[in-house]
Design a protein that fits this description.
mainly alpha, Four Helix Bundle (Hemerythrin (Met), subunit A), 7 helices, elongated
């Protein structure tokens, strides 16, 4: 009996650890927007929407082949896009976050290729990347709940 006492203590410690770890209720993942989540979304969405509203300025510069302005616009006003979109994506419902993050990554990739096209004076490529970026941006914004 004396030999089993240390072994019994270890077994009881393992059982107690498992009970404590597995006994707590699982965190419930929200499936709808709660007022707290909506408040966070409402905090970040106007900043992202304002960047979307400025996209036509970029189109005009591409059509005029003003490559310096295109690059300045991408690195200037659109420089905050990544941070703002990532913050907004993090506030969305858990089920929407993977799609939002994928669209955001696609958007960034299109802007990077647009910047490269502007550096190489490639108007056709720049126009295509602009349209693709705009489509991804609009798809991203469609995941965001609207406020009225």
């Amino acid at each position: 009996m004396g030999r089993f006492r240390p072994l019994l203590g270890i077994v009881l410690a393992i059982v107690a650890t498992c009970l404590v770890a597995c006994g707590s209720p699982a965190a419930k993942i929200p499936t709808t927007y709660t007022p707290e989540i909506l408040q966070q979304v409402e905090l970040y969405s106007p900043a992202v929407a304002s960047l979307r509203d400025r996209f036509p300025e970029l189109e005009g510069s591409i059509q005029q082949k003003d490559w310096v302005d295109v690059q300045s616009f991408i690195h200037g006003p659109m420089g905050e896009l990544r941070t703002r979109v990532n913050r907004l994506a993090a506030t969305l419902l858990t089920k929407d976050q993977p799609q939002a993050k994928a669209l955001a990554q696609d958007l960034y990739a299109h802007l990077e290729r647009l910047d490269e096209a502007a550096a190489n004076n490639q108007q056709v490529v720049a126009g295509q990347e602009y349209r693709n970026a705009l489509d991804d941006f609009d798809s991203f914004l469609s995941l965001v709940p609207t406020f009225q």
